[in-house]
Amino acid sequence: MTPNTKSPMNLRRQSIYLLPNLFTLGALFAGFYAIVQAMNNRFEHAAVAIFVAMILDGLDGRVARLTHTQSEFGAQLDSLSDMVSFGVAPALVAYEWMLKDYGKTGWIIAFVYCACAALRLARFNVNIGVVDKRWFQGLASPAAAGIVAGLVWNVHEFSEEIEPLTHLLPFVAMAFTLLAGLSMVVNVRFWSFKEFNVRKTVPFYAMLIMVLVLIVLAAKPALALFLFFVGYGVSGYLYWLWQLLRRNKLHPPQ
């Protein structure tokens, strides 16, 4: 029996909706803009553009769910946009910023990051209906991009303060780019924030914490965002280590 291609489900999967895809295209534009700015040696603008892409990428899915305009086209476009904004763009920004002066080693590290982002997105797409939605398998590509872009942004933001350590920057850039890339393909679990419910009541002190967060973010946005993504990247490994110690405590080796 031939399937009905005119069914509502098939029509929804094949439809193209304007509003959520505008956010996705905006994220794609920000990622492309970051690459262009890096080629023009405007690295601070490039780093900020990656964070703008991150915001727009976070909005497109939520807008699609709120307006009931999810589609297979939108999902595929979002994945391609993520590859440009959080895979290619951070790798090229890091390469143009610091890694290209180190020849083969520099571009290999940049490519490792880019390849890991592609592998991470491909694994996410094929496992989307299988894995526990509360957790990401490997560091999410926007978070990895936040680590790399945050490093670039902070180095330019605090260039005078870190001037005595300038000779160490190439090694720091290599280490952060490589570790952020490899973290995307490890089997370590990272909290996905998908259980976070904004409609749920919270105690009063939670609002005070949010006020402090907003103050820090307004005062030092580059540092606050960088520390958040670095902390998030470390949290997955700390959780993995805690699970390992707990397992060994419950089931000690004979």
Automatic annotation (TrEMBL):
Keywords linked to the UniProt accession: Lipid biosynthesis, Lipid metabolism, Membrane, Phospholipid biosynthesis, Phospholipid metabolism, Transferase, Transmembrane, Transmembrane helix
A Pfam cross-reference name: CDP-OH_P_transf
TM annotation in the entry: 16-36, 105-123, 135-156, 168-190, 202-219, 225-242
Subcellular localization, as worded in the UniProt entry: Endomembrane system
EC nos: 2.7.8.8
Reactions it catalyzes: a CDP-1,2-diacyl-sn-glycerol + L-serine = a 1,2-diacyl-sn-glycero-3-phospho-L-serine + CMP + H(+)
Membrane topology recorded in Swiss-Prot or TrEMBL: Multi-pass membrane protein
InterPro entries (alphabetical): CDP-alcohol_PTase-I (IPR050324), CDP-diaglyc--ser_O-PTrfase (IPR004533), CDP-OH_P_trans (IPR000462), CDP-OH_PTrfase_TM_dom (IPR043130), CDP_ALCOHOL_P_TRANSF_CS (IPR048254)
Family membership: Belongs to the CDP-alcohol phosphatidyltransferase class-I family.
UniProt xrefs under PANTHER family: CDP-DIACYLGLYCEROL--GLYCEROL-3-PHOSPHATE 3-PHOSPHATIDYLTRANSFERASE-RELATED, CDP-DIACYLGLYCEROL--SERINE O-PHOSPHATIDYLTRANSFERASE
Protein name per Swiss-Prot or TrEMBL: CDP-diacylglycerol--serine O-phosphatidyltransferase
Species per Swiss-Prot/TrEMBL record: Jeongeupia chitinilytica
